[in-house]
Write a sequence for this structure.
């Protein structure tokens, strides 16, 4: 079954500092990204995310209990999926035929983001001025390469505020409001680490890892 989660409105803007334990997040239940694609991985990091919204932004924070942590992409639009990475794929509405955004962030806060109708179809890179509107913070030193890997157990977080009006330059957007639904999935990957894995929130019942599967997106339902 496809997953569904409720996204609550926040009474005030959230300060973006990668602090999972700050008061605004304490009352929000996390989702868990724990379904694997491909073979069962030998390393399966506990990965969780929390979401909130207001009139200007969708807020997202990830927390990962990890090992074998790597980050070599330090410029936006590099291949962050090869690093220790968390991803948010979403259609800002209920009709996946309008396409989807893939917002991918590695553990040091480097972003890759595109909009496309399907994998590689009418693919549009989110330009640098729009990426600059996304406030982002990472608990690991932001922009500082991690190579060789951190082998020891490491907890890291990434948090961002995504201005939803910016998305309107690339696709139709149903503005967040009580009763509005978006289609989405959340992922954790680490393609080029010593212990690769491909984890999802909403199940993708395919034999090989492939996150570009909007037909299996779950639902975000906005509420007060």
């Amino acid at each position: 079954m496809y997953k569904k989660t409720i996204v609550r409105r926040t009474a005030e803007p959230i300060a973006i500092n990668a602090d999972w334990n700050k008061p605004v997040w304490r009352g929000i239940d996390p989702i868990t990204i724990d379904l694997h694609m491909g073979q069962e991985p030998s390393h399966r990091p506990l990965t969780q995310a929390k979401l909130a919204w207001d009139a200007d932004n969708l807020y997202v924070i990830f927390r990962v209990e990890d090992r074998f942590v790597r980050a070599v992409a330090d410029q936006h639009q590099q291949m962050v999926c090869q690093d220790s990475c968390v991803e948010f794929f979403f259609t800002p509405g209920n009709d996946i035929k309008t396409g989807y955004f893939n917002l991918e962030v590695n553990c040091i806060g480097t972003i890759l983001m595109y909009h496309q109708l399907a994998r590689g179809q009418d693919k549009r890179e989110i330009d640098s001025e729009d990426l600059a509107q996304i406030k982002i913070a990472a608990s690991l030193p932001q922009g500082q390469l991690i190579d060789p890997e951190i082998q020891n157990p490491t907890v890291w977080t990434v948090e961002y505020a995504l201005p939803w009006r910016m998305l309107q330059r690339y696709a139709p957007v149903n503005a967040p409001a009580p009763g509005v639904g978006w289609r989405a999935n959340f992922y954790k990957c680490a393609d080029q680490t010593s212990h690769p894995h491909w984890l999802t929130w909403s199940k993708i019942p395919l034999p090989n890892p492939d996150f570009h599967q909007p037909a299996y997106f779950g639902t975000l339902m906005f509420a007060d």
